[in-house]
Amino acid sequence: MDLSRYNSSACFETFPFPENWETDPTLEAIGKTYYDYRADLMVRNNQGLTDTYNRFHDPTERDPDILHLRHLHDQMDRAVLAAYDWPDIDTTCGFALDYLDTDPDDLPPEAAERVASGDLFFPTADEADAFGALISTGKRKLPWRYKWPEATHDEVLARLLDLNQQRHLEEVRGHKAAKPDSKGKNQKAKGKGAKQAKLESETPTIPGMEV
Q1: 12 or 134, which is more confident?
Q2: Rounded CA separation 80/74 (Å)
Q3: Which end of the chain is more exposed for a tag (fewer CB within 10 A), N or C?
């Protein structure tokens, strides 16, 4: 069975969104601010989404407009987690390499050691830039991503899964509470039948008029 395709009923409709998210003024405001700023930035730079986000994820990017876009992105993260009532989660992003197709033998020892550790997340742009300078061959740009560290990602995912389970159980309990008691109905039906039979047995019969 192929489960890799998006299905609205299996994914979107069952996703545990924050309570009243569609009418939350804070979410509405930050979403609109981010959208409008990004749209204006794309027009001013004559760049589409791909070019804009390539710059957004690049740790060497120092343009104030791109830095502000990241700031708005961080604000949006905080607003969403606040809507879930999870303000304790640290939303600080950094720069990570999701993959690295470079032969470790071709890297300087300090870079090879970092790659071998599996930790390719850097909390600041300067740290990411410095590591990038060590491993870059100049042939192609490194696949940087501006994102949460894995610990934050895993914590949010775990809480969403837990919330989804809680809501599922509440929905099941709600269905059970709303469902008629079939056992009670059967008992009532049996009682009514027995009463009717008793009445019929006690009803006097007239000879020649038996049914």
Answers
A1: 134
A2: 10
A3: N
**Strand 144-147 to strand 121-122: parallel, antiparallel, or no bridges (unpaired)?**
unpaired
SS3 letters across 50-91 = HHHHHHHHCCCCCCHHHHHHHHHHHHHHHHHHHHCCCCCCCC
Q: Is 94 helix (H, G, I), strand (E, B) or coil?
A: strand
Sheet of strand 121-122, all strands in order from the earlier edge strand to the far edge? 121-122, 94-97, 144-147
pTM of the model: 0.76
Q: Which two tokens stand for residue 63?
A: 């343009």
Find, among 10, 167, 34, 162, the residue nearest to 86 by Cα: 162
160-192 pLDDT, tens digit per residue, is 999 999 998 988 887 777 766 555 555 555 555
Handedness of CA 22, 78, 60, 116 (dihedral sign): negative
Instruction: Give the Cα separation of 145 and 53 in Å (integer).
Output: 9
